[in-house]
């Protein structure tokens, strides 16, 4: 029995191998499909035919045919065909896979065996290529064309660039490699200086698509090498013009070329932007050209490019840059000035703080060497006295009292400008009614104001960054020459999260108006830190807190409020909002002898920042209650002291409370001795037996009336009066 069970798997394996050999099951089945390549989403039909006599192991019994799409079972219909064959037909209404295998299976010994297969692919017809363009290289005269591929077809596709001459048949110019969308047509297939037709053809099993046909002369799309700038020189008689000379690329001397020149100063933006000047319409074969309108004493960067004089020709690359600096001449124009003046401590002098703006680039005419301030304008043959000669744009100097005019000039290596007259007007004019500032972006502020009733010649706008340490920006000002203006833009020296003091001065015809001030931020955020709380005083129901205002550098904006939060151990949280101008706050309604945790939050319009936690404990009693308690104890103590003093001073009260007992040793009885006393032996007290002493009679002597008891009058030299002799009887033992 065991041997029979062991031989069963071997027989199954042997039967399976027979099915797989030619003449087995794979040789007895055939699968046919309507089309191996179909449009994606369309129907697919297939049939499977089984010839039982050719299938070993399937000669006996009924054949059952089934289908599988990859590994998924699909249902088909089965019928008996001609010649004893079994036929199964299958229809897939929507084939949504780009590639799949369709298997025909038969059941053998209870398992499905694959006996036939057909591979099906699905996709789309090829899309039309777009934007075909070509460039001719003059190095090897190969025509390189590129295009944009259409949508993915999901099918194997062949792409070819085809070309045809005016008298030549259509040929394949080139075939892109590796799925690229560009290829190069060799020189042997090109017809230079003649029109050719080029297009891209894309083919797959579902169809063919072609791009738009491009008709060009290959020489019209030739990309030339850039020219070379040889020299740049200033023209002596026309000082704002320069002459340029260049050489065209080798091999293009015989061509009609059109060239362009571009140049920029170092301060300008890059050439693809608006900062680059461009000159067009230059004839390349000329080799030289002139251009005017350059600034004096300015370095420029020049580049040049050329192309064939054809509408469809490509520009060459820009030539390597060449720099040139134009020659200088004396500065021109007037300088914007601003001043401050005050009497000097030493009499007879006036201290002047003069500031000015550097000349604009088109007025400087070169590199500025320095500035000169004189007390009178310069005349021929005579140099006026100089009070300041500096390379900066500000100067402090002293002039005689009563001086109302000074003269400022700028000079470079080529000469000195005409003097700018500075009139030192008094600051007594009418101020403006209102001034405010708003941020335009993170690095600029837009300032607005209301114009005064009197006509204004110009405005001077000043701004200073507010810091904890004193500082001054000498360049943070600007002049608005339009007296009718009501707004200005500050763009210099503005940083986010910094406070600026802004002042505006109206300039009248004969005076300078008093300034008006405001403060502003270009951008705000929450404070960097919150103030540190300090406990000023505390009681059983109140706690007074104080804090130091934040340094302006840490505020990062206008402080809108302070918020105080406090909570006890059972999480009873309370808060109060405090005006930003205050620096102390009293928390009321606290519980006696309770621990509280307190912190402060400083807020701007952009958010708030919490401070560190302060822990405090309320007292059991208030200060007034403690004072009252100490006062009461003090009064009681004082009262006790007074009573003791009174007791010491008042003898009657003392006698009532502590009566005086007379000393028997000082009584008259103690001093009285009888005339004859029997001689008795002296007894030692220690030897006598203890026993009670019996007193038979006690005589009390009354003192004189009016004398306080317990006090004896002082002894007098006279003889004492006779006193009665009391008798005290002592009885012995027994």
From TrEMBL:
Look up and give the organism this protein is from.
Answer: Scytalopus superciliaris
Pfam families (alphabetical)? fn3, Lep_receptor_Ig
The leader peptide range reads 1-27
GO annotation, cellular component aspect: plasma membrane
Transferase: present as a keyword of the record? no
InterPro entries recorded for this chain?
A: FN3_dom, FN3_sf, Hematopoietin_rcpt_Gp130_CS, Ig-like_dom_sf, Ig-like_fold, IgC2-like_lig-bd, Type1_Cytokine_Rcpt_Type2
Give the similarity note.
Belongs to the type I cytokine receptor family. Type 2 subfamily.
Can you give the residue ranges of the Fibronectin type-III domain? 527-622
> What protein is this chain from?
CSF3R factor
- Highest taxon of source: Eukaryota
Membrane protein topology class: Single-pass type I membrane protein
């Amino acid at each position: 029995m065991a041997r029979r069970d062991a031989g069963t798997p071997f027989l199954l394996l042997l039967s399976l191998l027979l099915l797989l050999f030619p003449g087995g099951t794979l040789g007895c089945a055939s699968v046919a499909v309507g089309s191996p390549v179909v449009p994606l989403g369309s129907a697919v039909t297939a049939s499977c035919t089984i010839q039982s006599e050719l299938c070993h192991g399937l000669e006996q019994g009924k054949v059952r045919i089934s289908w599988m799409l990859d590994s998924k079972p699909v249902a088909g219909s089965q019928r008996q065909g001609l010649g004893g064959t079994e036929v199964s037909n299958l229809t897939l209404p929507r084939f949504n896979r780009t590639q799949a295998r369709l298997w025909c299976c038969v059941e053998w010994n209870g398992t499905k065996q694959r006996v036939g297969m057909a591979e099906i692919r699905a996709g789309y017809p090829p899309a039309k290529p777009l934007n075909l363009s070509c460039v001719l290289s003059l190095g090897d005269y190969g025509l390189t064309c590129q295009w944009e591929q259409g949508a993915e077809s999901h099918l194997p596709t062949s792409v070819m660039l085809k070309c045809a001459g005016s008298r030549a048949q259509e040929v394949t110019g080139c075939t892109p490699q590796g799925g690229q969308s560009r290829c190069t047509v060799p020189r042997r297939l090109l017809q230079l200086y003649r029109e050719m037709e080029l297009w891209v053809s894309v083919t797959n099993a579902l169809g063919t698509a072609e791009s738009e046909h491009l008709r060009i002369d290959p020489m019209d799309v030739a990309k030339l090498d850039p020219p070379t700038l040889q020299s740049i020189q200033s023209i002596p008689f026309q000082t704002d013009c320069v002459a340029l000379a260049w050489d065209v690329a080798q091999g293009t001397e015989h061509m009609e070329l059109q060239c362009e020149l571009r140049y920029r100063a170092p301060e300008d933006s890059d050439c693809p932007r608006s900062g680059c000047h461009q000159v067009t319409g230059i004839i390349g074969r000329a080799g030289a050209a002139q251009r005017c309108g350059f600034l004096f004493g300015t370095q420029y960067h020049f580049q040049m490019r050329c192309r064939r004089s054809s509408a469809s020709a490509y520009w060459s690359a820009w030539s390597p840059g060449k720099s040139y600096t134009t020659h200088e001449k004396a500065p021109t124009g007037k300088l914007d000035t601003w001043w401050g003046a005050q009497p000097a401590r030493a009499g007879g002098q006036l201290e002047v703080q003069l500031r000015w703006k550097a000349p604009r680039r088109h007025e400087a005419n070169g590199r500025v060497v320095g500035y000169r301030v004189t007390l009178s304008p310069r005349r021929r043959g005579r140099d006026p006295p100089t009070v300041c000669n500096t390379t900066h744009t500000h100067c402090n100097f002293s002039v005689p009292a009563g001086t109302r005019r000074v003269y400022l000039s700028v000079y470079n290596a080529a000469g000195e400008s005409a003097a700018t007259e500075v009139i030192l007007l008094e600051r007594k004019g009418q101020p403006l009614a209102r001034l405010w500032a708003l941020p335009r972006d993170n690095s600029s502020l837009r300032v607005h104001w209301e114009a005064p009733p009197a006509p204004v010649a110009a405005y001077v706008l000043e701004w200073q960054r507010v810091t904890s340490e004193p500082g001054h920006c000498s360049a943070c000002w600007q002049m608005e020459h339009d007296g009718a203006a009501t707004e200005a833009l500050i763009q210099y020296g503005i940083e986010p999260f910094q406070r600026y003091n802004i002042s505006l001065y109206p300039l009248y015809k004969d005076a300078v108006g008093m300034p008006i001030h405001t403060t502003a931020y270009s951008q705000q955020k929450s404070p960097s830190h919150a103030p540190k709380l300090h406990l000023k005083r505390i009681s059983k129901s109140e706690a007074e807190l104080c804090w130091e205002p934040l340094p302006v550098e840490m505020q990062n904006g206008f402080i809108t409020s302070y918020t105080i939060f406090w909570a006890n151990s059972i999480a009873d949280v309370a808060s109060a909002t405090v005006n930003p101008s205050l620096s102390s706050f009293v928390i009321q309604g606290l519980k006696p002898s309770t621990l509280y945790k307190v912190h402060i939050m400083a807020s701007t319009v952009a958010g708030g920042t919490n401070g560190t936690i302060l822990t405090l404990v309320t007292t059991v009693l208030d200060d007034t209650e403690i004072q009252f308690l100490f006062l009461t104890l003090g009064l009681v103590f004082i009262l006790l002291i007074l009573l003791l003093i009174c007791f010491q001073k008042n003898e009657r009260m003392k006698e009532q409370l502590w009566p005086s007992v007379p000393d028997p040793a000082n009584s008259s009885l103690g001093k009285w001795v009888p005339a004859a006393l029997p001689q008795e032996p002296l007894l030692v007290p220690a030897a006598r037996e203890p026993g009670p002493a019996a007193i038979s009679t006690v005589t009390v002597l009354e003192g004189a009336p009016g004398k306080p008891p317990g006090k004896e009058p002082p002894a007098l030299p006279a003889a004492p009066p006779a006193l009665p002799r009391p008798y005290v009887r002592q009885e012995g033992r027994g």
